């Protein structure tokens, strides 16, 4: 193993470099880039095993290993990603996202428009993709800018960073769900990802808000005077759902997952809630079941006169949105399966040593750096989350990130948080969200770099600092 370890580590580094090169330089879809890198790493690993005299191949039956890895990860989280995406699409199309925005605006008030935009963005992007959320909320941002006289760049940056924070960290957004599944967090652990991601994402949103208020007030927007007002935008919906109905598809699945996790807590020789009631609560709290209930509740938001064709179209749009995430997640699972088949984790474990807290903190920095590198190179935060978490999963024990705090898989949860922080750094011209923000806010490319791109860098670094502080005390 001592002779094969460095070669395997170099092969893994080269595979990561290949993914970055194919996605960044040649604009290849991340799915194909990961598949090619997976086969490349597997073939090289087989050669290294033969060259170093291994008793058995490092990767036996490469094609079977890849297929099983692809299928197993989708079997565990595929439906969760699909259900979460469909909920977001229906909330967007029925105007529930508008209801949530208005509710936050009433609480915060129009005297603090930047704070309102940041908080509105954070709430709306939990179920809705940040790109779609910005498009939906841009009429609100522009109308508030006109009513208050606030610089549209300030409000646009506050809205963009609020959306970006929850999009990158908080399930049921598909990226964080996929990352949690990739690092091995089971159905009973997803609630902990949600509970930890909320404060960390709020810290990131606050960092973006502070940047918007202090660093973008002098920047100019090129928005023309004539634009659709928020009130005019609302008129396209037959009837907006009430706040309670808009919140239920988001909140109830989270509550069910929390209750299921509490019911599953060990208590003596059994669980905290045992028997038929305990089984029922744990079944309802399984993410796939909880989110299916969320889908059903989201469909209940449809106006009575909405035809079935519209519903079918919305669900189809949600499936289309989820498809790239699913195939990238599956490809990532295949890559992770090939990595697991090699002894590289044992070699890294020997380098790290005893897995002390210092080693774990260093590992969080490594995961952040890798995610940031992938995000900056290929543009997609979701792809960065999925690819980095896939690479990390087989190595977590060696990196000292497999520890538990009671029933909380704290090492895995903080790994997801560190990867999420890296997946924020940075949004620039190869990121579709950069163009959505710049175009709907009237920012030139130069202005968007100084506002949006710089803000996402600050957000990622601030979120990383929060994760490291938690790591010092909890790992």
Automatic annotation (TrEMBL):
Signal peptide: none annotated. GO terms for cellular component: plasma membrane. The keyword Membrane applies. The chain crosses the membrane at residues 6-24, 31-50, 70-91, 152-170, 190-213, 246-264, 284-302, 314-335, 355-374, 410-429, 449-474. The keyword Membrane applies. Pfam families: GntP_permease. InterPro entries: Glcn_transporter. One of its GO terms (molecular function) is gluconate transmembrane transporter activity. Keywords: Membrane, Transmembrane, Transmembrane helix. PANTHER family: GNT FAMILY GLUCONATE TRANSPORTER (PTHR30354), PERMEASE (PTHR30354:SF11). This is Gluconate transporter. The lineage of its organism: Bacteria, Bacillati, Actinomycetota, Actinomycetes, Kitasatosporales.
């Amino acid at each position: 193993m001592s002779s094969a370890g460095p070669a395997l580590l170099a092969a893994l580094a080269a595979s990561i470099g290949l993914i970055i090169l194919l996605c960044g330089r040649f604009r290849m879809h991340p799915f194909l880039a990961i598949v090619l890198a997976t086969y490349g790493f597997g073939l090289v690993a087989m050669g290294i095993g033969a060259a170093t005299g291994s008793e058995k191949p490092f990767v036996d039956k490469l094609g079977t290993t890849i297929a099983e890895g692809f299928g197993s990860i989708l079997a565990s989280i595929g439906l969760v990603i699909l259900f979460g995406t469909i909920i977001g699409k229906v909330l967007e199309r029925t105007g529930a996202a508008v209801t949530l925005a208005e509710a936050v605006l009433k609480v915060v008030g129009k005297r603090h428009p930047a704070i309102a935009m940041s908080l509105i963005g954070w709430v709306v992007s939990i179920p809705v993709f940040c790109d779609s959320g910005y498009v939906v909320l841009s009429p609100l941002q522009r109308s508030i800018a006109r009513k208050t006289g606030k610089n549209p760049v300030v409000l646009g940056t506050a809205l963009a960073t609020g959306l970006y924070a929850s999009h990158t960290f908080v399930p049921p957004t598909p990226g964080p769900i996929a990352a949690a599944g990739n690092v091995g967090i089971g159905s009973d652990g997803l609630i902990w990802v949600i509970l930890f991601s909320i404060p960390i994402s709020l810290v990131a949103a606050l960092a973006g808000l502070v940047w918007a208020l202090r660093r973008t007030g002098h920047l100019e927007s090129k928005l023309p005077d004539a634009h659709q007002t928020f009130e005019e935008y609302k008129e396209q919906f037959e009837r907006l759902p009430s706040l309670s109905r808009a919140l239920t598809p988001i909140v109830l699945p989270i509550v069910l997952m929390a209750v299921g996790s509490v019911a599953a807590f060990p208590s003596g020789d059994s669980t905290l809630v045992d028997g038929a009631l305990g089984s029922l609560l744990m079944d309802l709290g399984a993410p796939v079941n909880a989110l299916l209930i969320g889908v059903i509740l989201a469909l209940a938001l449809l106006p009575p006169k909405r035809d079935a064709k519209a519903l079918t179209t919305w669900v189809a749009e949600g499936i289309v949105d989820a498809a790239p995430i699913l195939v990238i997640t599956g490809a990532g699972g295949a890559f992770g399966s090939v990595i697991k088949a090699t002894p590289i984790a044992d070699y890294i474990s020997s380098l790290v040593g005893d897995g002390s807290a210092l080693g774990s903190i260093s590992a969080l920095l490594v995961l952040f750096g890798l995610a940031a590198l992938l995000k900056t190179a290929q543009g997609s935060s979701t792809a960065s989350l999925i690819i980095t978490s896939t690479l990390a999963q087989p190595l977590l024990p060696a990196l000292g990130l497999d520890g538990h705090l009671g029933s909380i898989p704290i090492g895995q949860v903080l790994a997801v948080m560190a990867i999420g922080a890296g997946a924020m750094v940075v949004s620039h011209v190869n990121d579709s969200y950069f163009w959505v923000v710049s175009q709907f806010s009237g920012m030139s490319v130069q202005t968007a770099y100084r506002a949006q791109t710089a803000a996402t860098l600050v957000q990622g670094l601030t979120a990383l600092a929060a994760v490291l502080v938690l790591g010092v005390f909890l790992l």
